Amino acid sequence: MKFMRKKRRLIPTLLVLGVLGSSFLNNAWSAEAEQISDGRKLALATQAKAVARELRDSRELFDRIAGAGALADVGDDEALKYLANMIQHEEFVYQRAALDTLLSVRNAIGPDVLKRYVLDGNDRIFLRFVTESLASQPRDSMTDFLLDILEYQDSAVKKFALQSLAQLPSEKRTERVLQLANDESQASFIRAYAWNALLGTVYQEQSIKKLFDLSFKGSSQAKEAAAVALGRVDTPESKAVLLELSLSDNERVAIAAMTSRAGLGHEESMIQMKNMITDGYGIQRAAAAGGLRRINPQIAARITGEVLDCCDLEPYAAMRLIEAWANIDADPSRVYAWGLGHRDEGVRMQSIWLAGQRYDLNHLEQIASMLSDVDPGIRGIAAWAILRMTVEPS
Q1: Residue (of 376, 321, 309) closest to 351 by Cα position
Q2: CB–CB of 116/104 below 8 Å?
Q3: Which residues in 258-276 are b (16+ Cβ under 10 Å) and which e?
Q4: What does pTM read for this prediction?
Q5: What are the pLDDT digits (tens) for 110-155?
Q6: Which residues neighbour 172 within 8 Å (Cβ) at sequence distance 6 or greater?
């Protein structure tokens, strides 16, 4: 989740990075969770719903969206209707916040609302927003929709759809994606994303060979896609290609290759990745911190620990690092200890979101204390996290 600044407020909306996106980890690190009684969970859920309803009735539209999002996640029909109406708002920022919120709703109703809106209209920009968000948080229930929109001529829509499909079960996607991957009339970067989506299928070996070829003959975007994909291929040949890509004059290609090399255990790349998170600028910090989500969990945990030990991170890099931990299957205790009490409200909000995303009941009581925070953004994300951790979706 990303928190955008607007009028000195921190506004939650889901992050779209175009790399591996959100997935719900079964949190094996929450050893104390059994100590929280059902009665206490119910009491906290009741408090969280009250806060969410208060925000939904606010005069500030972002607060309304945050409150509605928390309630919709536990099956509130009126909240879902409100979000469905907001995706038609004339102002982009509200439309996009409602869109991402609907995609995060745990039952299928939210995504179904978006599918109907896309299919009933001809809003290509909105379709691009939907697929961009799905690249960050794929939904299995959207697989058929994603396969259908591969027919669209918009290359950005195809790219985002393929990034999302690459993270979903492969049974349905294989033949349609293979057709696209073999279509020489497609841009090289589209074919690269298609071959990436075919890794882990019966076309694994063919995909690797095609990705090698695109690493040298494709566009810069194709090389970047190949650099990301080859981080999943631990062979001497793949490592050699990644070394070549890491020397690219194109910064995005070089960063993608460096991240993949770090994930495959290359010591110098791990150091470079850590230094980029702490001392890089703009795109470097965001790309390196976000890249932690797609590498070996133990290596990601090691780099994170070294970053937290050495440096006072700039808030944007800190938020990207925390967000990456939604996908890292390792103990997040140090991240919570650092982030939940951070002086920057955006970092605190991202840390609350992480606990909710990972269903981490260890921090339920600490987050409950934030339901009375003076910042409505903190209250909203605390309510969402508590409801996600204590109430089953309906």
Answers
A1: 321
A2: no
A3: bbbbbbbebeebbebbbbb
A4: 0.87
A5: 777 777 777 776 567 788 888 888 888 788 888 888 998 898 888 9
A6: 143, 144, 147
